[in-house]
Amino acid sequence: MSLTIEEILALPGLQGMSLRAGARNLQRNVRWSYVAENEGIAEWVMGGELVFVTGINHPRDEANLMRLVADGNASGIAGLVILTGGTFIQRIPDTVVALAEQCGLPLIEQPYLLKMVIVTHLIGTALVQMAQVKRSRHDILAQLLSGDYPSLATARQRAAHLQLPLDGPRHLVALRLSAVGTLFVNHAPEEAERVLQHTRQAVQDHLDIWNRGLHDALPVIVQGDLFILLLAERQAIRAELSILYQGLQAVTGDMPLFMGLATKVEDCANYRQALNEARQALEVAESLRPDTGLCDFSELGVLRLLQAIGDRSVIDRFVRQTLGRMIESRRKHPNSLIETLDALLQENGNALKTAQRLNVHRNTINQRIQRIEHHSGQSLDDPLFRMNASVALLVWRMTEAQRQDRT
Fold first, then answer.
1. What is the pLDDT of residues 324-352, one digit of tens each?
2. How far apart are the first and last CA of the chain?
3. CA nearest 173: which of 201, 145, 202, 131?
4. From 3.30.457.10, 3.40.1390.20, 3.50.50.60, 3.20.20.80, which CATH number describes the 5-124 domain?
5. 222 with 145: CB under 8 angstroms?
6. InterPro entries attached here (predicted)?
7. Whose C-alpha in 95, 202, 246, 376 is 20 to 30 A from the C-alpha of 253?
8. Whole-model pTM above 0.70?
């Protein structure tokens, strides 16, 4: 586990520290502590720091503290600690508290009488201890993901000692920020690196917080440019990942992020295979750029063929030609024919099962079949049309049209 703001505030000996703002982000990870000695902090932090402000070496008036909050928020620090009392900072202005709350930046007040040497020692010791546990847990998972471990029995024994729940089926998801090359083309190297590291830290923090709320969660693994999730079996995995993706879009800014989902694995011995599947799905997602950001390995067969088409407009044109005439824009539900066609194909043309799947009357399905064949000029008995429609629907499910329909 990582050490969070909440865990730091709960450390024995730090009861005198009090949270003044940013309670909704107490799960932010703290990488290390940093005492700010300069007027500003933007040039001196890279994200994830718990920044301490004493006022000893630089005057800290209201305007300066407001700037520190703004700079800290923009730089992705974990939290800001302001020492009050004594002859330096007497109190934290209400405007500073309000700005920190607005930004969601954890703002902590520390009495000046609580010595910095004690605070930094307690936090540093806890960080080292937690880092050791985290390193061991990540080491086990990294070995299982690479397939390079002494024995499965040893890996399981270590996992049990470190309380890693390896038993049970898992879904592996690989995530990656895209367009990194474009970032360095459009910005100076220093600025591009700062944006990249800040965004990566924001993504990891978001994943860590999201992951902690799950049952039998394993740590988020960072392997090269990949973020790897190992999720306990869940029925609504794609719906949950869709919600996760929407949340991640708020922190990635102009850098797109994509996800690859592997088929379910029953045992930790198969994590390496799952990672390979997720990588393949991720490559297709980056190529086809689905609206949901996700590609499922189970759908990869046809999608890999589509990925080989260099001109995306060819795929879009094929979808429009196959399905476009079935979109009835003047009706209350313009995509009802496409949804019916999709259900029919999934039920192998069985109209009764299709009606049950869509929760409509059998006669309604028959009427929609007639409209489908009328608009498309094709017969559902034609195997070529069914094949083309299946491919077009696979792409359609990953496009803006589906998102607009859900909205």
1. 888 877 777 878 888 888 888 888 888 89
2. 37
3. 145
4. 3.40.1390.20
5. no
6. CdaR-like_regulators, CdaR_GGDEF, PucR_C-HTH_dom, PucR_C-HTH_sf, PucR_dom
7. 95
8. no
